[in-house]
Amino acid sequence: MIIIKDPSNLQLYLSKYRQNGEKIGFVPTMGALHEGHVELVRQASSSADIIICSIFVNPTQFNDPRDFEKYPITLEQDIIALEAAHTDILFLPSVSQLYPNGTIKLEKYELGYLETILEGFYRPGHFQGVCQVMRRLLDAVKPDLLFMGQKDYQQCMVVKKLMELMKYDTQLITCPTVRETDGLAMSSRNKRLNKQERDNAIGIYKALSQIKENSGRASVEQVKKEALKILEQHHFKVDYVEIAGADTLEILKEWNKQQKHVALIAAFQGDVRLIDNMAINS
Ligand code: AMP
Question: Whole-model pTM?
């Protein structure tokens, strides 16, 4: 694996592969890698010729500066994990390399409804930051295939929208959420949970599983209420428990057998904000 920091060096390096018609697969991350990230790299390896992973903790997507400051950094272990997963290139830009004109007064994207709900509502500006960094990363890498995790369900939809807006011809491949053996979705933020919080954190998976099990059996409101109860029993401070259309993220009021649904939760365990989701059928 080679490490490239400068976006223009990366483009130069990749051009020879592109000329040879080799397929470039890209896995963007913020580091503190876990098995979920490694699985994305594996997926990329199975369908692309050259695998690039980026590690960049993007300052413009943190609406809470304390969250940015506390974001775990484990670069040495990350490099070992990426090598083991046969990554070809680690793209490791600095903030000034990715944002040469600084990070204030950046361009805005017309994300419409997607930015008004769930993560968009609770983390104002977050998805603008996601688009700002993804645009720069995609411009640098110009991948054929982009691999992202379903764990960040709404983010996948936002990035898809960005690629439509910018007319990129990259194909987005969303990969299933990798979980710990007890069901907790793997996340870099889990590293910040203490023992008690880690034990409680399973409440999100239990709440989602309860929604899946009871979908269509009681009213949407009732099912959400029971999920909320589970979260509160596990000492979560809840931002939202919602059930939405899987393709539109329109918030569901009544079960609709014609539509696929997804249940989504965001909640704080201590000062660590966790998100997760689960596909459900009513
Ligand atoms: P992050 O480093 O948290 O920004 O995540 C980088 C990529 O890994 C995103 O596409 C995430 O959706 C994906 N990802 C994070 N956690 C998981 C997981 N548990 N399973 C699968 N993909 C994940």
Answer: 0.97
